[in-house]
Write a structure and sequence with these properties.
seven-stranded antiparallel β-sheet, binds FE2/S2 (inorganic) cluster, 459 residues, binds fe (ii) ion, 2 domains, alpha+beta, Rieske Iron-sulfur Protein, globular, Naphthalene 1,2-dioxygenase Alpha Subunit, Chain A, domain 1
């Protein structure tokens, strides 16, 4: 096995992420200055990991049944009796809010003859959990309450027919489940994440937009498009002018957690436009400068950068609109893309600048299909309790831009990312080489996911 010695550093010319945030109006947050990119193998990664039904089945048994995975938000199950169904491959878990405010998670399969107790992907309220086939009914706490024609079942042990449970825990408003009853606690599994997110509180936020798109590729192929910006100049050429890409900072903190830190309102080293700070601000903050008249645009003052003005404007907007004080956050925490990957399939963005998550999941039991969930959050205004957004489900043929609430910029970027994935998956199937060769730094986090997968697969 080929392994590099020492910490891997970015060799992209131009400013590093750290150089950029040291030019902001506030001292950089200490947590953003931490860098960790340990040496790894440089061996190729075979494509059967993305295309083989046998490998997919191993993932089902040894990964999806063993890991903590994001299922829903606290807002989805606020009141006793509220439930939310989380599906992963063949498995399905119902999360139920209890009378005492706690949570329980049950395997979504009737103990009579197996019917799903709640439809996949559903959510709602029910005072008890009743199977839709013959009506066996469980209490919210999982105890068996009623069996129609009970005289038919003198052999049934009610106590033994409690609903089988999965582990369920909530952190920062995010509810995770784990089918392995011997798993480590969620906070331990999340490694550095709770510490890093100490100032990035999402408990008083709610999902205001939730899009789920079906894709013709393996779930890892979809996820990995969001773990590197090496593809940005070709796939998102317009982004390079206002977003750092090849000079992103990639960090690996443990088996389960890695991140990329991407500066906004700066041009990438790959941009040749030479934009002024005012140009950068106009494109970053106010959208299309053709549409917003010049007199309405915020001006970059002497000695300021687009980033400094953008952070200031964001703080003002959050204060005015949501009564949310962001003065405790550095400029970079307010505006940048701080994207954490939690093994195996979740991205959570830190800070209020891009408050969202993305999650790739196998679609049913098809190794060649997946879904990508994008959930965007907004702060809850004082005195309000908005309902979480309904899921908008779209197919591969749909554009994200057709979904109400998606900005043209976000829609374009997501369309571009998801369009390339079917081509990549087809190419994997057509490959003569049969493996991929990853970049040592910019694609290091993809490799880490595969290494962690191997640890789970060997257990
Ligand atoms: S299958 Fe559920 S009650 Fe019969
Ligand atoms: Fe992309």
């Amino acid at each position: 096995m080929n392994v590099e010695v020492g910490r891997i550093e970015s060799k992209t010319p131009g400013k590093s992420y750290e150089d950029i945030i040291r030019g902001d109006s506030t001292p950089p947050a200490e947590v953003l200055l931490r860098r960790s990119n340990p040496p790894q193998s440089t061996d190729d990664i075979p494509f059967y990991r993305y295309t083989s039904p046998e490998f997919f089945e191993l993932e089902m048994q040894k990964i999806w049944r063993k890991v903590w995975q994001f299922a829903c938000r606290d807002e989805h199950v606020r009141e006793p009796g509220d439930y939310y169904v989380y599906d992963i491959g063949r498995y399905s878990i119902v999360i139920v809010r209890q009378d005492d405010g706690g949570l329980k998670a049950y395997h979504n399969s009737c103990l009579h003859r197996g019917t799903k107790l709640k439809p996949s992907q559903s959510s709602g309220y029910s005072a008890s959990i009743q199977c839709p086939y013959h009506g066996w009914t469980w209490n919210l706490d999982g105890t068996l309450n009623e069996v129609p024609c009970s005289w038919e079942f003198p052999h049934l042990d009610y106590e033994k027919n409690r609903l089988p449970e999965a582990l369920v825990e909530s952190w920062n408003g995010f509810i995770f489940i784990n089918m392995d009853l011997n798993a480590v606690p969620l906070l331990e599994y999340l490694e550095v994440v709770p510490e890093h997110f100490a100032k990035w509180d999402f408990t008083n936020w709610y999902p205001y937009l939730h899009i789920q798109k079906e894709l013709s590729c393996n779930w890892k192929t979809a996820q990995e498009a969001f773990m590197e910006a090496y593809h940005t100049p070709l796939v998102h050429p317009e982004m390079t002018h206002v977003v750092g890409d090849w000079n992103m900072q990639h960090d690996i903190f443990g088996d389960h957690v890695s991140r990329d830190l991407c500066a906004l309102a700066v041009s990438s080293p790959t941009s040749k436009l030479g934009l002024t700070e005012q140009d950068l601000l106009d494109r970053s903050l106010l959208g299309d400068p053709e549409i917003v008249p010049a007199e309405k645009r915020v001006k970059v003052g002497d000695g300021e950068t687009a980033r400094i003005v953008m952070a200031r404007e964001m703080r003002k907007t959050f204060k005015d609109t949501y009564s949310l004080d962001l003065s405790h956050l550095s400029d970079a925490e307010v505006i940048d893309s701080l994207k954490y990957n939690i093994f195996p399939n979740l991205f959570i963005y830190g800070g209020p600048g891009l408050p969202q998550i993305q999650q790739a999941r196998p679609l049913g039991m098809d190794v060649n299909r997946c879904t990508l969930d994008v959930i965007v959050f907004r702060p809850v205004k004082p005195g309000e309790e908005p309902d979480p957004a309904q899921v908008v489900r779209i197919t591969e043929a749909n554009s994200y831009k057709d979904v109400p609430g998606v900005s043209a910029f976000m829609g374009d970027v997501l369309d571009q990312d998801t369009q390339i994935l079917a081509w990549q998956h087809e190419g994997m199937l057509a490959s003569e080489k049969g493996a991929e060769t990853l970049a040592r730094y910019q694609e290091s986090r993809i490799r880490r996911v595969h290494e962690t997968m191997d640890k789970y697969l060997s257990r």
